[in-house]
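Limitations

Structures in this collection are predictions, not experimental determinations, and the ligand pose is part of the prediction. Treat each record accordingly. The example that follows, with PBG as the small molecule, is included so readers can see exactly what is and is not provided: the inputs are given verbatim, and the output is the predicted complex.
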Amino acid sequence: MNDYRLDLVHRPRRLRANENLREIVAESDLRTRHLCQGHFVIPGTSAEQEVASMPGVSRYTADRLIPVVERDLANGVRSVMLFGAPDEKDAQASGALDLDGEVPTAVRLLKTAFGDELTVMADVCLCPYTDHGHCGFVEGEEVVNDSSVAMLARMAAVLAEAGVDFVGPSDMMDGRIAEIRHHLDEVGYERTAILAYSAKYASAFYGPFREAAGSSPSFGDRRSYQMDYRNSREAIREVLLDLEEGADMVMVKPALAYLDIIRAVREVSTVPVAAYNVSGEYSMVQLAVREGLADERAMVLETLGSMRRAGADLIITYHASRVAAEGWLS
Ligand code: PBG
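Predicted complex:
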């Protein structure tokens, strides 16, 4: 018997022979419904500003955001994640509690225009509103936990009052999910859901976002609250805590350099897992495309597809508008 001939009994290429067969046996898929578009909201009216660090992304005033979201929705993008990019900042992050601030205003307009057709999520974090750019309050050089958490809970209630469907705490303070859940329930927003940024790493991939949101820390870095990229068990710990505290969905962030974490979290999570395809990941692809080094469609779909294969149920991405507008998934 010739072993060489026997080996050829196994021809994996048979299942790759044509498009139809590949469609039949594909193990994972990516649909427009899996994508959530991230948006930066600026104060005022009738303005749009391009974000230089993120080709193809603009910051919009709440009124200007409406037609943009309307088009995406018509193309199948069912959800948005909003970030505030306010002009005014102070040590107390007072802007975070302004019911007439840019984000609550955008939430009200979006929910009035689209109702339950559109799921509106909003980031809960102090960094766009603090003058020092940290995600919590600062005492001396320390980012303090518990008073920050109390403030984040109040910010979440303001967004809930504006009508947001999901609040998305991205601050990485300890115990904030429990505190936000408790406070929301106490003030009558038990139906507002929480998407917890559970495993959020201190990452170089947030650079372009910080330019868009004006949220770079003025001193130090975020490593005393965001996770160390050398760790994965710690991600599970964070996820399990957030589940116990009442998270309705959990998130891994960033996504591309953290596909192993998405997979590990998928295996323990009893709730949907979101992956955040962050600003630096977006800009790397867009700059490669601009330089003629990559085909945009192919690279975007492969990138987002890898997150689905890793186990992400929902992907927050700045590519969503374009994917949907070009009909790349229809
Ligand atoms: C706020 C926040 C950040 C991002 C989302 N929410 C920045 C940060 O933690 O520095 C990053 C998102 C992106 O890069 O697209 N804390």
